[in-house]
Structures are given as C-alpha cells and as structure tokens.
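Why should sequence recovery work at all? Because a backbone constrains its sequence more than one might expect. Tight turns favour small or flexible residues, buried strands favour hydrophobic ones, and helices have their own preferences. The token representation captures these environments compactly. In the example below, the structure is given first.
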C-alpha cells in the first residue's frame, strides 16, 4: 500500500494579484537601491508588504540562477539576466521617447491655449 501524498512537491495556491511586469519592476527597484534600502522601505513605495517583496526577490534570484544566501549567480544566470535587462532597457527607452513626444505635444497645446486666453 502506497501512503505517499500524490500532491507532494506540488505548489498549490492562488495566482498573484500583481502582474509579472509590476513584480519585476519592484524587484528591479529593490536591486537598484543596492542594499541601501530595506525590503520594507522599497515595498512601501510600491504598495506591498516587505515580506511580499522579499519573496519576489528570492524567486527572481532562484529563476536567474543566483544562490540567494551568497548573492552569487551562475554564468548562464548572468547571461539570462543581461538579456532580460537589455530587453527592459529597450522597453524603457521606447517608453521614454513616447513620453517625451506626449510632453512636447502637451507643452505646445498649453502654449497655444495660453495665447488664446490673452
């Protein structure tokens, strides 16, 4: 008779209410602090608990191949992280250009309406 639990090793839980991009951004924000800010301080900025952020950082480290206890990362993990950061950098540069364009359009509209009011 087999008495082992068939669910052993299976993670059961609910889906996170936070989108993956939000979690990745929160982890990046924590890492950008470079140890100068606590999990709780960064988490308060993004509206989650410190423990939630710590869990996200640990899972991101595991996914990237880092040994969380020593802060080391395998070469494959570093390559994946570099590729991810390059994609993120490209996405942010594109978003910055879009914001600059929108800002310029709004500046021109404000100047136009300011002239019309006089």
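From this structural description, the recovered sequence reads:
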């Amino acid at each position: 008779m087999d008495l082992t639990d068939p669910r052993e090793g299976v993670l059961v839980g609910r889906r996170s209410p936070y989108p993956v991009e939000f979690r990745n951004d929160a982890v990046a924000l924590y890492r950008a602090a470079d140890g100068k800010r606590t999990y709780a301080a960064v988490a308060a900025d993004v509206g989650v608990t410190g423990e939630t952020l710590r869990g996200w950082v640990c899972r991101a480290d595991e996914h990237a191949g880092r040994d969380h206890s020593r802060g080391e990362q395998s070469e494959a993990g570093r390559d994946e992280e570099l590729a991810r950061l390059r994609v993120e950098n490209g996405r942010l540069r594109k978003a910055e250009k879009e914001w600059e364009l929108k800002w310029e359009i709004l500046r021109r509209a404000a100047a136009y309406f300011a002239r019309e009011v006089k």
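A few observations help interpret the result. The chain has a mean pLDDT of 84.
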